[in-house]
Amino acid sequence: MSLDDNEVPEETQEEIMRAVYDALREYGYADLTMQKIAEMTDKCKATIHYHYNTKEELLISFLDYLVSNFRDWTVKENADPLEKLNSLLDKMIFGGTNTSIEEHIDIHRALIELRSQAPYKEEIQEQTTRNEKHIRTVIADIIKEGIDQGVFRDVEPEKIAAMIFASLDGARIRRITTNEDFALEQIREALDDYINEFVLKN
Amino acid sequence: MSLDDNEVPEETQEEIMRAVYDALREYGYADLTMQKIAEMTDKCKATIHYHYNTKEELLISFLDYLVSNFRDWTVKENADPLEKLNSLLDKMIFGGTNTSIEEHIDIHRALIELRSQAPYKEEIQEQTTRNEKHIRTVIADIIKEGIDQGVFRDVEPEKIAAMIFASLDGARIRRITTNEDFALEQIREALDDYINEFVLKN
Fold first, then answer.
1. Which of A50, A56, A68, B188 is deepest in the core (most CB within 10 A)?
2. Which of B160, B170, B179 sits opposite A125 (nearest CB)?
3. Which of A98-102, B31-35, B43-47 bottoms out in mean pLDDT, i.e. has the lowest?
């Protein structure tokens, strides 16, 4: 990032991003305003507008921020590929170590609203594409590692990563949009079967 | 359905449902109004309001209508279980015989918007739950049939149906919210592998 006048100092950025996160959880996407985001910080609305011209620009920064530490957040270093894959799936489905499942579901409830606007807003669509590509690449890299180490079958990493991500995402949306609370556990089990039978070398 | 005063005559219902479908494709969910729906028919807004008190009530009827002939629409009768499953997947992913893929994507673009409101609107959440249960039951029934006929492995039909539906739904949402046009084809292939390796008896 260049050091231009408009660059957001790291501490300010972190505070604003945390405020977007909290405001999305609290109000959802449709009712989100710059004012509500500002109220989650000790800054005024004008300060936030100074760094981010529009709500859309701010949300695109937020999507970028969300995925920026995805690999660190989900992938256990110094673990074998199967353990890496399982820890990633658990975190993607149930939330990270410091995130309750309710918080995880809350934020995805707002994100699915935001994502549903992607077809109408090109910049959101582009950022969504980058985010999902990044996540699928992390998954595919673990699969490649497993193949290289001879513990996974000679599958197509990108195709398997796409299948895993799609089923995860579908299950998450089912959990959010229906009253079937067991949706996540059911898919976690089905993914275990899929990986054991289809990816792992027996 | 009881023959009360408010029952919608079949022909009128068909016309209104078709109008909701066309209006959702054209305007999406956020910009949908009763007026815009009425303009897609030869009826006035008051007539539609006479049958459906609110836009939400109308949309719930529409969701119910969409899934009402799902089995007839997707399942080829007098076919073997594998053929039935494959024809269902093709139709769910790429649209029916009389529906272009663009039309199919258009309507799902609006449906994902509508579904993203389910967590905030209990009746929409309940109808969404019914619709998805119905679709998964149709898939699970085909799997049971295959197990009974000895052509499918002794898998858990509900779990497999959940995995198939989640991956289909995830792929559809990826196709709609990102610019990755090949998302549907990639998951169709991955599902073929899944069914061949995991469901079909070899």
1. B188
2. B179
3. A98-102
